[in-house]
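Lab notebook, bench 4. Still working through the backlog of constructs that have no structural model yet. Next entry is a single chain of 260 residues. Request: give me the structure tokens for it.
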Amino acid sequence: MLVLVKQVPDMEHVRFDAERGAIDRASAGVEINPFDLNALEAARWIVSSIGGSFSALSMGPESAEAALRDAVALGASGATLLTHAAFRGADTLSTARTLAAAIRKLGPFDLVIAGEKSVDSDTGQVGAMTAGLLGIACVTGVERVRGTSGDRMLLSAERWGRSCDFELRYPGLITVTKNLNTPAPASLSGKLRAAKTPIARMGLEELGLSVETVGAAGSPTRVVKVTIPGEPGRDGAKWEGDLPAALDELSKALAARRIV
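Model written out:
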């Protein structure tokens, strides 16, 4: 198995640069994406239940090595960092294209697990896009792993307000929600092992990609304008005296606002 992880800013303290339309990543510390902790816990549960092993993969700057060491401390047998100046500014498609290229090089894998989304962009697109580029089955928003049966995994995920059951044939990719499990902390032995584990690196050349297909250059989407909505004001009225007339005015006001 392979678990996709991402290093993200501490969203409780990060600032947003409205002029650039981007998160000011230098304004706060970094951590492993919280949803990816659920993905790592899912991989650990599968290993403890039916055996096997999992490794971790991340795309980012050199500092993202810390997130991969966290993944190793939580049970990953190894980790690979995709890092290159050309990868900067990638949108979801460009990111998925780079991850898919790495998965082809590192695989094959029976199962790829990712968090439902990252807290810094909140799109929930990368997992499904990566599966699409790889041409493998995908189930998003998994809230329960019900078990395995031969060449498939039995899953549950919410769709349109209802819990639905799925059978995912290997190879496949799943994205998991916070409802799936409660991530356990890394053990001391896991942290010691993570400190000694070498983190592999892959760049543009190793992946066989061109500059035009990755990072900002390979991104079809751009942030054109960012608007931060203001706090809505309160609008009120006061009626005195004639109660029936006041109720009639109230009824008209509610209807005008499509409340009734």
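Notes after review: DSSP finds seven helices and 13 strands in the chain. Helices lie at 34-50, 65-73, 92-106, 126-134, 188-196, 204-207, 243-256. Flag for follow-up if needed.
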